[in-house]
Design a protein that fits this description.
Layout (H helix, E strand, L loop, with lengths): L3 H6 L15 E3 L6 E3 L17 E4 L10 E4 L4 H18 L7 E2 H11 L1 H4 L10 H11 L5 E4 L10 E4 L38 H6 L18 E8 L6 H6 L13 E3 L7 E6 L4 E2 L5 E3 L5 E5 L6 E12 L4 E7 L15 E5 L5 E3 L2 E3 L11 E8 L20 E4 L2 E7 L2 H6 L8 E6 L2 E8 L7 E7 L2 E6 L14 E2 L3 H19 L8
Parallel strand pairs: 14-26
Antiparallel strand pairs: 1-2, 3-4, 5-7, 6-7, 8-9, 8-21, 10-13, 11-12, 12-25, 13-24, 14-19, 14-25, 15-16, 15-24, 16-17, 17-18, 19-22, 20-21, 22-23
Helix pairs in contact: 2-3
The chain binds zinc ion (2 copies).
Length: about 500
């Protein structure tokens, strides 16, 4: 699709709104669509509109499901194109049809002012680059640029403009066909891999592949602080206004313009683990380290009957696990069942644990090769408890920036929360070993939001299966696979966010 009409008919961005030439928009090398800066989760840093020197992949085209962005060093020629396009668009915005500009009065000052946005080169110490700009414009006259020589004898200045004044066509070059989106076990293509020149390959090696929609460099949940990956909310009001305010740099971004990014599938949570635990790339298996350390899955449940499986794939003689369910505040530098927020079943002797008390449960423990089932039953009360209502929107929490992404920061005090724990009548947890029902382990568990969770001690590897295809399907017909929770949670979140935006509409202002 290279002809102009079809380019313009293409869908724009995730939001499906029109292009806006007055703001920064990025061109995806995969689907070759435009994306508005404020619709992009990745924190881009200083940029200017009409840039040519970057590799961007949108969420739909990036193998990880997370946007990737990388600046490529701009040549002076590209800087000239970007400068002229911006100067021209600025005039157009003011209603003027001016397309020719002075090197000294317009082009050089623009480049000077936006140097860091335009290029990764460091600022020049001397002004010799001024000559380079003039030479660059001269060199590509008739190809990229055009000039106007003064007719008036008094006037000596030559003006320059773009040969093609249709600035909507300015985007990074796509040299090869887009990479196919990798799925499942297929080989993954490094983002940007198809446009990297020989010279740039070195930096490509440093580009870390992200795993299943979560940034490799991320903050860890710790000491009552929890971090939820944020993405721009397409339904938030005043978004275009926010886009066009160019004095926002450095100020706090209003949280309500963003929303929690819900993982598309249930996996182990990279950010919700003791840092010493090693999680595999697919985020379905985890290996222990030295002392006991724990990890939670990405999703919780607070009502209904839910099931997941865990298989012990490797286990050294002196290693152990305690697997079960835990709330968000359960300490991860301890086994599950160490505090009041978790319930577990230990491999050694089959002991069950809650609040650091170990009680006899199954006559034998479990070990390498065993597949275990974990079932939690949280009946829906006639009057839903605070945990059984929709999860509240987190749009009112502060947004914090960590590397290239924004996160909502939540804070909860475990010492305070533990006082509020109340048992949920008729709730229970039971475990299964290779399909055998080991009977109820815990009854009347505390009301709350429970994640699949496991603690590992030394060299043990556990592989998780959240369904829907289980090795030993749960015997209860109404038990749902944890995998079902992903879609359900997306719906709950979106309901909660919509309610928040509606209730607070009058107070949401850009100030
Ligand atoms: Zn958009
Ligand atoms: Zn794309």
């Amino acid at each position: 699709m290279s002809n102009k009409a079809s380019e313009q008919q293409r869908q724009v961005c995730y939001c499906n709104k029109d292009r806006n030439l007055n703001i920064i928009e990025l061109w995806c090398l995969g689907c070759r669509r435009w994306f508005h800066e404020s619709c992009i989760s990745y924190q881009l840093g200083k940029l200017v509109p009409f840039m040519l020197n970057y590799a961007f992949y949108c969420k739909n085209c990036s193998p990880s499901g997370l946007e990737t962005f990388r600046k490529i060093q701009a040549q002076f020629q590209q800087m000239c194109i970007t400068a002229l396009a911006n100067l021209q668009q600025y005039e157009a915005k003011e209603g003027r049809d001016k397309t020719l500009f002075s090197v000294d009065k317009d082009i050089l000052p623009f480049i000077e002012m936006h140097w860091e946005g335009l290029t990764t080169m460091s600022r020049r110490v001397t002004n010799t680059w001024h000559q380079t700009i003039s030479r660059t414009l001269q060199k590509d006259l008739g190809i990229l640029f055009r000039q106007e020589v003064p007719k008036d004898e008094q006037e000596t200045e030559v003006l320059y403009g773009l040969k093609n004044t249709d600035v909507t066509q300015i985007h990074p070059a796509t040299s090869e066909p887009a990479p196919a989106k990798a799925r499942g076990g297929k080989r993954r293509t490094l983002p940007g891999g198809d446009v990297v020149s020989k010279k740039a390959r070195g930096e490509n090696a440093a580009l870390k592949l992200m795993t299943h929609g979560y940034p490799v460099d991320h903050p860890f949940n710790k000491d009552g602080f929890r971090y939820v990956l944020a993405e721009p909310d397409p339904n938030a009001p005043h978004r275009q206004e926010f886009d066009e305010m160019n004095d926002w740099q450095g100020r706090r971004i209003p949280s309500w313009l963003y929303r929690a990014m819900a993982p598309s599938q249930v996996m182990l949570a990279l950010h919700d683990r003791a840092t010493q635990l090693k999680v595999t790339e697919g985020r379905t298996a985890v290996t222990g380290d030295k002392g006991y350390a724990s990890i939670r899955a990405t999703h919780f449940v607070s009502r209904g009957t839910w099931y997941y499986e865990a298989t012990i794939t490797e286990m050294a003689e002196n290693a152990a696990t305690r697997i079960g369910f835990a709330q968000a505040l359960a300490n991860l530098q301890a086994p599950i069942g160490f505090d009041k927020f978790g319930y577990s079943w230990r491999s050694r002797k089959g002991t069950k644990f809650h609040d650091s008390r170990g009680l006899h449960y199954s006559d034998e423990g479990y070990g390498k090769g065993d597949t275990l089932g974990f079932l939690i039953h949280l009946p829906v009360e006639a009057t839903p408890t605070r945990h059984q209502k929709l999860p509240p929107s987190i749009k009112d929490r502060p947004l914090v920036r960590f590397k290239n992404h924004l996160y909502f920061e939540e804070r909860e005090d475990a010492a305070e929360e533990v006082k509020k724990l109340t048992p949920l009548p008729n709730s229970y947890i039971k475990f299964f070993r290779n399909g055998e029902d080991m009977r109820v382990a815990f009854e009347g568990i505390y009301d709350g939001q429970y994640y699949p969770a496991l603690g590992l001690y030394r060299a043990v590897t556990v592989s998780l299966n959240f369904g829907p295809d289980f090795k030993f399907p749960p015997p209860l017909r109404d038990a749902r696979p944890f995998s079902d929770r992903a879609q359900e949670y997306v719906k709950e979140l979106s309901k909660a966010d919509t309610a928040y935006l509606t209730e607070n509409y009058n107070t949401l202002r850009l100030e």
